[in-house]
Design a protein that fits this description.
Blueprint lengths: L7 E4 L9 H16 L9 H5 L13 E4 L2 H6 L19 H19 L22 E2 L1 H10 L9 E8 L7 H13 L16 H6 L1 H7 L3 E9 L7 E9 L2
Parallel strand pairs: 3-5
Antiparallel strand pairs: 1-2, 4-6, 5-6
Length: about 240
């Protein structure tokens, strides 16, 4: 099976401003339609094709980050970027699990980039995330996560999320991981991200810190791992995010 990951496009106007948001929304829809029709979107020419969307021109587009969904690419038989073999040294973790975690993260971040993540009360959508990086799986970060999973320390420029789940005989690690990733991401509903202007304020830190780490636009490399720590019978999921340098 040929896997695809979501791809990042950053479209900037000449003066680098954010552009018109109505044009931004129309642009994201147009990109997805083009992909369903089997077209190949070239990141170097995308801004020109988007210039024909409604009344928008190329100069209307700010630093829009559009993340195309893997399933939309698969329907047209095309891939923007295949997921490579990870090549990480920890053979106790499967590449299939890594692929699942990577794809899930980027799908969630894609939804935030195009303004499709609910915030407090369910009546609002979180602000669109401009300059959203596509996450890549970093084997060095995975090793760091594995070495420090049972420690409380974290290096400057790194962000970590951790939670322990029951290690039962019939435990399905992928299913348990899926539950936790969705739980962490759903923290967007615990705080009004519109009122907080999508900034890491005290309310966000207190109520949605896990979501904030997963959604931080400037993170590039990340990895997750799982295992047991001394004195615990549960399995610990540990995800580490490294800010782009």
């Amino acid at each position: 099976m040929h896997h695809c990951v979501v791809e990042l496009y950053q479209l900037k106007n000449e003066n680098g401003t954010n552009g018109d948001r109505s044009c931004v929304r129309q642009a994201s829809v147009k990109l997805k339609q083009d992909k369903r029709e089997g077209g190949v979107v070239n990141p170097h020419s995308a801004v020109f094709s988007l210039g024909n969307v409604a009344s928008c021109t190329a100069n209307d587009f700010g630093p829009l980050a559009v993340l195309l969904r893997r399933d939309e690419l698969s329907r047209s038989g095309g891939c923007l970027m295949p997921i490579p073999d990870f090549g990480c040294k920890n053979t106790l973790i499967s590449d299939e699990w890594r692929k699942y975690v990577l794809i899930t993260h980027n799908k969630m971040r894609r939804n935030l980039a195009i303004g499709q993540v609910k915030t407090a009360n369910g009546a609002k959508m979180a602000p669109m995330a401009f300059n959203m990086n596509e996450l890549i799986w970093d084997c060095d970060v995975e090793k760091y996560a594995s070495d420090n999973m049972c420690s409380a320390s974290i290096l400057n420029g790194y962000y970590a999320i951790t939670q322990t789940f029951k290690n039962t005989k019939d435990c399905n690690v992928t299913e348990e991981t899926s539950k936790l990733l969705k739980e962490w991401w759903s923290e967007s509903n615990a705080v009004d991200l519109v009122a907080e202007n999508a900034v890491y304020t005290d309310p966000v830190k207190q109520k949605a810190s896990n979501f904030a780490h997963m959604a931080f636009a400037l993170v590039k490399g990340f990895a997750c791992t799982y295992g047991t720590c001394a004195g615990s019978t549960g399995l610990k999921l540990y995800c580490v995010y490294r800010r782009k340098e």
